Amino acid sequence: MKMRYLQVVMATLMALPAGSALAAGNVNVLEGLYAGGSFGRAEADDLCEVSIGKCEDNDNAWKLFAGYQFTPNWALEGAYVDLGSFSDRAGDLLTIKTQADALSLAIVGVAPYSDQFAVFAKAGAFRWDLDVRQDSVLFPQNSTAMNDDGISLQLGIGAKLDFTPNLGMRAEWEWYQDVGDRDVTGKQDVNMLSLGLFASF
Questions:
Q1: What is the DSSP letter of 48?
Q2: Backbone dihedral angles phi then psi of residue 93, each to the nearest 5 degrees
Q3: Nearest CA to 114 among 196, 33, 25?
Q4: Alpha-carbon span 167 to 179, nearest angstrom
Q5: How many C-beta neighbours within 10 Å does residue 4 have?
Q6: Residues pairing with 55 in the sheet
């Protein structure tokens, strides 16, 4: 499944410039700085397949992003992402809560199909930070807290619509690979769907 995600995004990135040239011709696309924020939902893959009881594998998520559009087809983008929290509960005896956030940097390939509409794909890396807390009702002295961080692969695809030359909206799906350490906090891939606004400068 991971290779399938990678193949889809990389194929999209390679096809974007050619596709935009065929479909749009000489489209007037703004270049320069842009910044914005998005809100959506994040889901941890396969978390509930190993659940010890009541499992919640999705949560609200949000991010702040900024980038620089070098050409009509290529940009560099960084972001802070709050991936929300996930929990697993065995009745009232044990609760495991996981909270994750990330800093990411990605190359973005853009295909403008009109003066206002474009699709894009991204590939990059992100530094994740994961906090895991285990609380026991019967044995509170055994409650533990763990933290781990690392660097993994990020992929994404999306579309954007410009309302004005300086304001637009975008929707995207992003895939964050291997959040966590299998031996320390547990490891999951996280998918995020979001909708946001951005401003160009």
A1: G
A2: -90, -45
A3: 25
A4: 33
A5: 8
A6: 88
* pLDDT tens track for 137-186: 666 666 677 788 899 999 999 999 999 888 999 999 999 998 877 766 67
Backbone phi, then psi, for 5, in 5-degree steps? -55, -50
Longest CA–CA separation in the chain, Å: 68
164: helix, coil or strand? strand
Place of tokens 């190993």: 50
C-beta neighbour count of 179 within 10 angstroms: 27
Residues 6 or more apart in contact with residue 33 via CB below 8 angstroms: 66, 67, 68, 69, 200, 201
Q: How confident is the model at residue 35 (pLDDT cuts 50, 70, 90)?
A: very high
* Pick from 42, 34, 86: nearest CA to 62: 42
If you ran DSSP here, which 8-state letter would residue 29 be given? -
CA terminus-to-terminus distance, the chain: 38
